[in-house]
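Record type: ASSEMBLY
Status: queued
Input:
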Amino acid sequence: MCGIVGYAGSRAAQGILLKGLHSLEYRGYDSAGIAVLDGHDGMDVVCRTGKVDALDAALTGRGLAGTCGIGHTRWATHGRPSEENAHPHRDCSGRIAVVHNGIIENFAELKDRLVGEGHVFVSETDTEVVAHLLERFYEGDLLAAMRRCVSFLQGAFGLAAVCVDEPDRIVVTRRDSPIVIGAGGDCALVASDIPALIDVTRDVIYLDDDQFAVLHTSGDIECYARDGRQIEPKVSHIDWDVDVAERAGFEDFMDKEIHEQPRVVHDTLMGRLKDGRMTLDELALTSEQIAAIERIFIVACGSSYHAGLIGKNLIERWARIPVDIMVASEFRYSDPIVDGSTLVISITQSGETADTLAAMRLAHSHGSKVFTITNRVGSRASRESDGVIYTKAGLEISVAATKSFIAQVVALTCLALFLGQERGKLDGATVARLYAELNRTPGQIEHILLDTSAIERAAEACTQAHSALFVGRGIGSTVCYEGALKLKEISYLHAEAYAAGEIKHGPIALIDRNVPVVALACRSATYPQVVSNIQELRARTPSCVIVVATEGDEEIRKSADHVLYVPEIDECFQGITATVVFQLFARFIARARGCDVDQPRNLAKSVTVE
Ligand code: G6P
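Status: finished
Output:
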């Protein structure tokens, strides 16, 4: 989704802005642009549709001299991807420029009024109203104009603006949209996400809703509260390595991130079992509070929702607490039955997903405690939660979630074991046995990654398909939902996932010679039933049958054209190992179809609008 970057300092801004925009490419976008103040009563604005490379090419040889500027990658919401609709947007005079992440919900009404007053609009975007409102309120102080401007705005926004009359500063504000400021000492930066500024500084300031900041080319940063009071900014230090944002020899980030999963599982598990007991100290829950939980409600979107489905299965299985789950975009507009006895768990790798944040606020308003499982320290979701479990996936660049999903599943598994133990449903020996089994998964993932040739051959058989049907049972059906989502996201091949027992009630009608069946039939309590379902599907002559099965199961070969083996593991943990096979399967198909694996069309990594 849209990315913002801004730089105020003594170096040429152009290169820093372009580098920042490249590092935000993972968020998903379809055009890009920059505005640089030249320090001599002028401003250069250059925008291009397509990739940041096109903007790079347009700027080659231009070498803009200015040391203060803003840049943007746009993910189209209002108006198609075009140069006119690309940010930065300017006012009528061309003296003010603004970049925006989010949606101005009342833009149509504001635009009508501004047009009535004689303002001339050149784009179809909601953002352009901000530039014209700033023009309307500008009386020599961009911060004051921004304050008046946002008092008219409804919706979500992260905004950064510059004005040629104040060539040494950038004015920034936000509401329900991520903004982080970089304190570089002799320079100041602003961005939607840390990768855009980590090259220049690791010292960051998280701006809260309705706060303002002024970034000076001297490096000074002023922060203001909603009521106009100047406040002391709280600086946090980022301690990840810059090289996590590099491909490290892999063909794409997705491949790199898939291969990081053994480490991610290991790190997320580390230190969870102490003296034979599962510990989740960060939740600070007393035994009384745990005993008082009557229900759990999980809210999440996308892959995080699928992780939640696995969490539901494990929590109900081990802790015997009823768990509801709903996609956050539905929950936020529903009338959910949650109260003080319900524990709400939000799952969001980015910690910034607009629908998930709204769902969390609704749950809070009903008196529920909200815990979050997230990968981002300092994110909005983590700051709005009563307790946070951090996954240890590290920065994920590829749009399709892989290692962040696996880390969520591991964190939920630990939570389910913890609740089972604390509610007295699992004895110490069972917890220890299950935890030891869980600890085998990093080695098992490594084993799967060692030889992926069978997965590649199965993928080759599917590249020309027009649709694929994934089936499984229990946790296996959830793994199939995630497998089908991966395939859709990155290869644009339509895929459906169904609980295998349901196929007779509709999906079996889809089967023809162009439709492969992908079945998850690892050893589990429902293995015989899944095998029967595979026979039923096979009898309808799909293009091929691909089965993910447990090593040593030779019998399954009779029912499959391709068998993809995974090591034997308790079925509770198959969500961790079998998912890796589906990730690789989707990636091989996407590459064979010539798709951009890391930045699939129309998708965004961090969905900050509803
Ligand atoms: C987007 C991403 C998905 C992700 C979903 C939820 O659609 O492309 O990979 O699962 O958002 O994001 P979250 O950050 O809340 O987990």
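Annotation: Residues 301-304, 348-350, 353, 356, 399-401, 603, 605-607 surround 6-O-phosphono-alpha-D-glucopyranose (CB under 6 Å).
Annotation: The chain has a mean pLDDT of 93.
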